[in-house]
């Protein structure tokens, strides 16, 4: 807030966030021109704060001083960087409701002294989502890799009911308003081709493991034969060669592919009980007992006294 105050500015520059060494700061102390440049730089940050808010100011500071790079190069730097960005958001939000920069500083000091652990805004954010479960569409996953991949609804499909397709010779888009069976069949073939392309994308995202959820789906409610509609999906097209089968036939097709790399498992009964954290067991604490004798024979003496006792 006041870069002309040398002691305050030096204290800020000495923080680990800035990444300066003692030699860097000593060089600034002995170079008046370099110090004036730093004062002018931080005065620019103050102007950004006045005009645009505290978060744009902090972003400009972090960019100019390579603060993100400095932090990430240290142990625990990712955690610290996440906290700084989080605090900048909270300060920007609070600053819009306060009358001055001094009031914002007081607000921050008060929340440091009296934190509210129950406030959602004060909960620690995760440094990174690289170890979290990510839910993405197949379209979004194109070109990416994930250690483990689950495709729970890979047999889902949507039958093409609009006679919209591309001519096989001119490749022009065609919309047949008469809904002729031939046009519907061509549109359905295009739908299946696109689903097969997406299936390939989905199956090639995993690095170590890929799980597929396959269920004997039946869309035709009036069908009495027990045949499923899985054969109309992209995966069913590959498994059943486009032929309708019942649940047993579907399982047989899957088991025919099983080897040391492919395993087929049927889920058992699910447990509807909500998961709860196991109660922590607290062992009883006891103070250690002294196992040796203490000798309390001591005195206050001096060097001359030691000399006298030595003689």
Automatic annotation (TrEMBL):
Which EC class does it fall in?
hydrolase
Keywords, alphabetical: ATP-binding, Exonuclease, Helicase, Hydrolase, Nuclease, Nucleotide-binding
Q: Give every UvrD-like helicase C-terminal domain span.
A: 1-143
Which SUPFAM superfamilies does the UniProt entry name for this protein? Answer: P-loop containing nucleoside triphosphate hydrolases
What's its EC?
Answer: 3.1.11.5
Q: Which domain of life is it from?
A: Bacteria
Pfam families from the UniProt entry: UvrD_C (PF13361)
- Give a GO biological-process term: recombinational repair
A molecular function GO annotation: 3'-5' DNA helicase activity
Q: What GO cellular component term, any one, is given?
A: exodeoxyribonuclease V complex
Query: What PROSITE patterns does its record include?
Result: UVRD_HELICASE_CTER
Q: Please identify the protein, giving its name as recorded.
A: Exonuclease V subunit
């Amino acid at each position: 807030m006041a870069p002309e105050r040398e002691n305050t500015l030096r204290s800020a520059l000495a923080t680990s966030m800035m990444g300066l060494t003692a030699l860097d700061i000593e060089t600034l102390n002995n170079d008046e021109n370099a110090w004036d440049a730093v004062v002018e730089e931080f005065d620019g940050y103050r102007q950004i704060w006045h005009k645009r808010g505290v978060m744009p100011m902090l972003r400009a500071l972090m960019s100019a001083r390579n603060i993100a790079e400095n932090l990430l190069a240290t142990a625990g730097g990712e955690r610290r960087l996440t906290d700084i960005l989080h605090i900048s958001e909270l300060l920007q939000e609070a600053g819009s409701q306060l009358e001055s920069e001094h009031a914002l500083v007081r607000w921050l000091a008060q929340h440091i002294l009296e934190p509210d652990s129950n406030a959602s805004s004060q909960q620690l954010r995760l440094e990174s989502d690289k170890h979290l479960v990510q839910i993405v569409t197949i379209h979004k996953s194109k070109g990416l890799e994930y250690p483990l991949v689950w495709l729970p609804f890979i047999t889902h499909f949507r039958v093409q009911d609009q006679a919209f397709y591309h001519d096989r010779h001119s490749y022009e888009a065609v919309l047949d308003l008469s809904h002729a069976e031939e046009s519907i069949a061509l549109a359905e073939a295009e739908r299946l081709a696109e689903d097969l392309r997406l299936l390939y994308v989905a199956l090639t995202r995993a690095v170590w493991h890929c799980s597929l959820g396959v269920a004997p789906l039946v869309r035709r409610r009036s069908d009495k034969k027990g045949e499923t509609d899985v054969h109309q999906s992209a995966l069913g097209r590959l498994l059943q060669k486009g032929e309708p089968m019942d649940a047993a036939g579907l399982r047989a097709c899957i088991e025919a592919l099983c080897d040391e790399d492919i395993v087929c498992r049927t889920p058992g009964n699910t447990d509807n009980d909500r998961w709860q954290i196991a109660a922590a067991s607290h062992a009883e604490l006891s103070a250690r007992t002294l196992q040796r004798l203490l000798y309390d024979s001591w005195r206050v003496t001096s060097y001359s006294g030691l000399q006298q006792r030595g003689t």
